[in-house]
Amino acid sequence: MKWHEHAVKTEGLRTHGFTLIELSIWVIIVGVLMAGAFAMINTMRRRINMSRTQTLLRTTNQAILMFHDATQTYPVSLHDLKFPPADPKIRARWGEPFMAFDGDEPEDSWGAALVYHLKPKGSKPPYELYSWGPEGDGSPQEGWVTTEVG
Q: What is the pTM of this model?
């Protein structure tokens, strides 16, 4: 039997399996589903990071207020919430840490230190407390994560 005769005999037979077009369609469908899942996961991750950072800001704000109640002054930096302040008068009233966190200052969900600025006496509110947000240091104010202070 010659090769072309064999080809003619098997021409009408259906082989089992998928065609290249069927496999391509499945790859496209799975790709679209994966892209949607990744987008949803990233949205959830962003919301979780924002929520965690807002909770950290509220906790830090409470620690600042407790520090003020105990020492009758606001901390010079957030470092003073965990470690005794350098000023001996404040250190005498300090007592124990007002907040526990890793490192020298609390960090937001994106790994950056929270921003704390003590304003001049008599200012309302007496300090600023915020996170730069997901864009990081120097991001526009619309991207900051904030909480009520004072």
A: 0.76
